[in-house]
Each structure stands twice: as structure tokens, then as C-alpha cells.
């Protein structure tokens, strides 16, 4: 086990009707002028936004709306939010929605607190980020875990790069989590969320570090819980208990606890980010479409680790490590497919009426691999450090129709 530091300061208010406490929480954390950040019209149509705003009014808190966050949040839109928040003199940013709204709110908070820098400069590390505004969350989707994470991911349209920023300043002050608010999300968002929850743990689990038993057990049991309750929710997403488990697993999967003492892998996230940036595909779908190819490509770097995953998570009984590892990979891919998630690149669905991505050309795959590795100037992954050729090989494996 490696040395680690764990910091999870977010206050969680979990359960039915907890959104009614939003105004009290905002006041508690010093908010008096709030910019509310949200996505499309679902929070408006459901009446959630008004209920939240009514709690602010009851506390004498002034607010302004900033809606229209894109599912793969855009840096330019967040930059507009910075300008809105500064003009409004906001002292707290409140996200009402899922990971995209939360990541945008985090970015706006950084920009307001550091007006001398653009978000692009902040994301590129050109300034030392030492301060930010407080962020609160009313969660409507179990997926990204951004409500407790130290991460925020934006797509920079100017460069075409989707990139994360990791800092403890990203951790929200509070998160309100009512599983009932997830009942009406589209089925595709639900299943993309299930994949994302699993991947935040899988990307930490596959580490070369040994002797990490407690963290391993937490990760393995979380994965089993997501798999079990994901099946239930897929059939009935108004099952309160199943949606509760998924929502809480979402937070735990990305607050750091499932990877303590190990190294952060996140290779599959890097593969997926380039696909999302290029084709605007859903984040969870980009992960399910590439995980199987990645796992098959790197499995021999540590087959005993994949075998442990297969036995502990999927109850595989194969005694040979390689056979067990292969079985565990196959069961994972089969599970994704059972949720109607893509398990190869050609099946990735683009937004609107653009249809499926289809089989990509070698030229496109090379460009994607080049972007993952910054022109082959860096290697990714700790389990098996990979260059551009390795990433290209994984994309090629994923490019075959299932």
C-alpha cells in the first residue's frame, strides 16, 4: 500500500425530500447571492428548479439562473457563466443536475475567484489555483460522482480537447441527494451512469500496487452492489432502494475511497474522453465501448489482478488465473451489453439524428491515439505504460463490430 491522503469534506444530505433543505444549506455555507447552474429543461419541467428556488427565497437568498449546460460540458459556456456570476456578484454556485452541471459549476466557481485568468489558463495549469467560490449540489443523476470528487472535466472547443482538472478546491461544500429525483431520467442516461460508476472504481482497481486489501474489498463490494442494483434499476428505475444504492455508490466511486493506497489508472477514461470530444458521444457509452478492448490488451501485464477481479466481483470459479481473467472480462462486457450499452466503437450513438459512429478509418484511429498520448510524447497508465502505438492497437480492437 502506498502513502495516501484522503480528503472528503462534502456534507451529504441523503434521502426523500432533502431538496427542501437547499436554502438552509446555502445559508449555512455563506451563500446570499447564488448562481444556479443547470442543463436542459428537465429540472424546469419537473418543477424541481422552482422548488429549489422557493427554498432560497424562504431564506432571503437572491438567485440568478444559468441554464443550458451541454451533456459534455463546454469550456466556452462555463466561461460565460463566469461572466454572469461576476456581473451578478455571486458568492455561491449551486448546481442542479448531474455531472455536467456540477463540473460547469465548479469551473465557474474557479473563474469567479480568479478573474485574472481564463478557464483555459486554469485548466492548462498556467496559474496556481489557490481559491474558489463554494459550490453546492442538488443531484439528479447517479453517474459521474462529481458531487464528492476533486475533479471537473470540460471540453475546450478551440483545441477539441476534453480534459479534467484535479484539485481539492473542486470538492463541493454540500450535496443534496434524493434518489426520487432520478426516477424520470431517460433510460440511456441511467445505463451510462451505471457504467460510469463502475469505471471510476475499475480505473482505480487495476493497479500494480500490492497489499491493498481494505481498499480492494471496498472496491469489489461496491462493484457487486452496482451490478446487482443496476439490473434492478434497468427493469424499474422507480425502485427506491435500487436507485438509492446506485446514487450512493456513484459518490463513493469517485471521492477517492475506492483507490486509496494504489495508483490512479484512468487509461479507459482517457480513451473515452477523446471519443466524446470528437463525436459528442455520452461519456458512459465511450467507456463501455472501449473497456473490453483495453482489458484484453493489458490483461497479461497482471493476469492475477484480473483473476482476482473475476473471482471477487463475478464469482468466477476458474482456478487458472488466465482463464479466470478472460472470464471476468467477458462477464463485464456481457453486463454492459445487457444494459443496451455499446461494447465497440461502431455501436456508439451520436446525439440528435447523426446515428451511430460506425467503423472508423485507420486515419481517424491514429488521430485519436495521437491525441491521447499528446503526439506520442507521453505514456499513459501505471498497470502497463502505453504509447501511441499501444493506444492505436486498443482502438483497433474496439473498432470491430460486436
TrEMBL record:
Keywords linked to the UniProt accession: Oxidoreductase
Organism name: Mediterraneibacter butyricigenes
| Domain Fe-containing alcohol dehydrogenase-like C-terminal as annotated: residue spans | 194-396
Q: Which GO terms describe its cellular component?
A: cytosol
Task: Indicate the segments forming the Alcohol dehydrogenase iron-type/glycerol dehydrogenase GldA domain, all copies.
Answer: 9-179
Q: Which gene carries the instructions for this protein?
A: bdhA
Protein name, as recorded: NADH-dependent butanol dehydrogenase A
Q: What range does the record give for the signal peptide?
A: none
The protein's GO terms of the molecular function aspect are: alcohol dehydrogenase (NADP+) activity; butanol dehydrogenase (NAD+) activity; metal ion binding; methylglyoxal reductase (NADPH) (acetol producing) activity
* SUPFAM superfamilies per UniProt: Dehydroquinate synthase-like
Q: From what superkingdom does this record's organism come?
A: Bacteria
Work out whether the entry's keyword set contains Nucleotidyltransferase.
no
